[in-house]
Design goal:
The complex is a heterodimer of chains A (145) and B (222).
Chain A (H helix, E strand, L loop, with lengths): L2 H22 L11 E4 L11 E4 H5 L4 H7 L13 H5 L19 H4 L9 E2 L3 H4 L16
Antiparallel strand pairs in A: 1-2, 1-3
Chain B lengths: L2 H27 L9 H5 L37 H5 L13 H6 L22 E4 L7 E5 H7 L2 H4 L15 H5 L20 H4 E3 L11 H4 L5
Antiparallel strand pairs in B: 1-2, 2-3
The chains are: A mainly alpha (145), B mainly alpha (222).
Chain lengths: 145, 222
């Protein structure tokens, strides 16, 4: 093979691979807005899409204090064990999504808008972007072998 | 090249690739050692950036962001972040919005109370300087910017004892999501090269030298 033909073969291989990827669809890593939270403790199991909570949208309207001090949302994705029963009792999202401060709870699909099967996670967090786990220094009490 | 030859060479390319793939796996089956490795095979594991993944685009609309389901009709009623961020001061990280400046410049007025739009936040202006042993500038923790958004009970006492230098803080704890890392790297600005100096903001004295490690001081071959 002349080097020109070789180069062409290489080129067609690359094009072929690209065409294949385009056709089959390679899963794209999520590019969601920083601090979007997917909450999926129960939704999937009940046949609903996971809930997506956008921090950016809410922090334009409320300080963190409203949710994380007054309404008692703990700083932990999935950690508040939110259910619809609690929401219609006026807790968590239901403190506002009640037809008074914000639109009411019958707009299921506005909150339940996540891709089915997406696990609970916090989008864009530094911890998740680390290539290797963060270095964990020895604590004074775990020197024993 | 005109359209037709383009189309032909494209389908040839696909066929060729499939053929090469077949031939290649066959060659390995019979253990053909004479065939030299092709550039494509060698360079696979040697791609220039093995670990660096650059975000391709910022502030995508919900239907394209990979976590919202575009099949869900309501997804298309959700707001596009860029529409909301129009006119806000920008930054180079996180949401690419400078949330502190947005408040300071009066561009945003998020509520401090769920229902009452006129309630004012309880702001406390107290800087805490935390000297750092390493060569990076010392850390200044500003209460002002924090109490614009948060209440004392969001940090005290669960995350920090309210006493200067009573808390042990390190970068590894922060990167593991503890201490400052409870919020920074999650909702408040992330921890990356472009943000180091936001926390490490007090320059060291001009004559400051990094302390030498024990091993260097005791080095017998010195």
């Amino acid at each position: 093979m002349s080097s020109k033909i070789k180069r062409n073969v290489l080129k067609s291989m690359i094009i072929g691979v690209l065409a294949y990827m385009g056709a089959v669809g390679v899963p794209q890593p999520a590019q969601a807005e920083y601090a979007d939270v997917v909450i999926n403790n129960y939704a999937d199991a009940a046949g609903m899409r996971p809930a997506v909570f956008p921090h950016w949208f809410h922090r334009i309207r409320f300080r963190c204090k409203v949710c994380h001090a007054d309404l008692g949302f703990a700083f932990k994705a999935g950690g508040n064990k939110i259910t619809m029963a609690k929401i219609i009792d006026g807790k968590f999202c239901g403190a506002c999504h009640n037809g008074e401060i914000s639109w009411s709870v019958e707009n299921c699909a506005m909150c339940h808008s996540g891709n089915p099967g997406t696990p609970t996670h916090f989008h864009g967090s530094t911890v998740q972007r680390l290539i290797a786990p963060a270095y964990k220094p020895l604590q004074a009490n775990d020197t024993k072998k | 090249m005109n359209q037709k030859t383009k189309a032909i060479s494209f389908s040839c390319a696909v066929l060729m690739a499939a053929f090469m793939w077949n031939a290649q796996s066959h060659a390995t089956e019979v253990g053909d050692k004479a065939a030299p490795l092709m550039l494509a095979e060698v360079s696979g594991p040697n791609t220039f950036n093995l670990n660096l993944k650059k975000p391709k685009s910022r502030n995508l609309p919900p239907a394209e962001d990979g976590i919202h389901d575009p099949e869900n009709e309501a997804t298309h009623s959700l707001q596009h972040p860029l529409e909301a961020y129009k006119g806000l001061p920008t930054s180079e990280f996180g949401n690419y919005v400078d949330w502190v400046k947005a408040l300071d410049q009066g561009k945003l007025r998020p509520r401090w109370d769920r229902a009452d739009p006129n309630e004012e936040p309880f702001v406390m202006d107290l800087d805490i300087v935390r000297p750092v042993k390493a060569s990076v500038p010392d850390v200044v923790f500003p209460h002002r910017q924090h109490t614009e958004w948060l209440f004392c009970s969001n940090c005290h006492p669960a995350i920090f004892k309210p006493q200067r230098l009573a808390n042990q803080i390190s970068m590894s704890a922060i990167l593991l999501g503890q201490k400052c890392g409870v919020c920074h790297g999650k909702v408040s600005f992330p921890v990356e090269t472009k943000t180091c100096r936001k926390c490490h903001s007090k320059p060291k004295p001009a004559d400051w030298q990094p302390p030498l490690s024990e091993a260097t001081l005791k080095n017998p071959w010195k």
